[in-house]
Amino acid sequence: GSNALGSLTYSSQDSFRIYNNDIRCNTRGSQLDGEPIKFDPAFWGFSRYTKIYNNVLKARTQTDFNHANIHFDFAIELGYEKELEIYDNDIEGSIDNNWLYKETNYSMWVHDNKIRTKQFYTEGYAAGIVLEFDVYDCIVENNTIDSAMQGIYFSIRNNCYIKDVVIRNNKITNAGQNIVYNNANGMLLGAYVDAIGVNYENILIEHNTASACQAGGIVKPQYGMCFQGADTINGLTVRNNILNGVITDQTLMVKPIAIVTNSTFSNNVTYGGNFNAIFSNWQGTLTLPSGQGNVFSGNWEGTQNPNFNANYEVQNPALINAGTDGLTIGYNAGGGGGGDVLPPTVISTNPVNNATGVPAGAYNIVITFNEAMNAATLNSANITGISGTFTTGADYVSINAVLLPNAEYTITIAGVQDAAGNTIAAPYVFSFTTGAAPVYYDKFRTRMKNN
Prior knowledge:
globular, 1 helix, 9-stranded parallel β-sheet, mainly beta, 40 strands, 21-stranded parallel β-sheet
């Protein structure tokens, strides 16, 4: 409906679950949000461990759009989240998230969603996935995004930071540029920053395939990948991506205000149009060997920039699962581009780390991971510091143990693997102490001593 905020509005939740819903906003009042799922800006407390999955979400219809007042198309708009997961949703509209901070393993993990927007050439701003304000420790992977003006976009404000972000194995199709609404720039992936005090650090972009709309009369995106306007860029890695279709302006723009350091561009391919690139404020040259840890090799074909070598002569390769020099690059719906290559992480334990007064005697210790695990690896060889009976579920292991009174336990998890065979990156360690023995235990001990 024409809700002032959203059809489902929340804030300051812990372990909130939103799943198996069908939420469609069919009307929308002028200058009202009316989004299917939205955080309540009246309450700015953090939500933790929210999961949004298996929903059908539809933002407002085209007929009640007002170019003068409303220029966003959000199906999900959230803010102040820690350890948020959005997955397996069918979405018409955008995913927009603000102020993302890590709780234990990540701030937000957006994966395996099917996203489509309204026709960008008849409406206003239509993005696929938007990351706004501060963005830390975020993972965006295995999503399909269709008909967006901007596929995956950083919308950054003054004095904000983009740090430790992974964008991998996403497929962006039919991207274009809107010339109706303020001549908004189209972009397949990246950020066009009009702010001060903004920095990019440790951003990995790999195995994505992005293509411009090929329909006649549609303006192609102005940029392919764009990293412009930040004060500094440090640790930007762009590898094994495919960009398809004519770009209006730059295929690749890396143009910070100050300096680019410790960055790598490798094994990327563009085809179906002319190549153009703009680089500025690079510490060292773009050709090998390059200064300040920057590496630039084996990249896009093209000759307009003298620092580029035509490493690849790509003649109409398949958009999906393209490969060059033995590398499988770009998105593949079957898990191509490396599929699931992220190591599993522990998201919770019971008892929690540093817990005190845990009851002595029989106790069920539970360790939960962020994804489905290989049950054969959830055993006493890989989980040490405790003995008991191990029982596994899809994403957890429980250990039925007998805990001694007034004891300290330290449990180490190492060598466990997810269902795809990825091993946990580093040992996970948590500790707890038990309380005094139960009364029946003391009585038994006293009786034995007296006898």
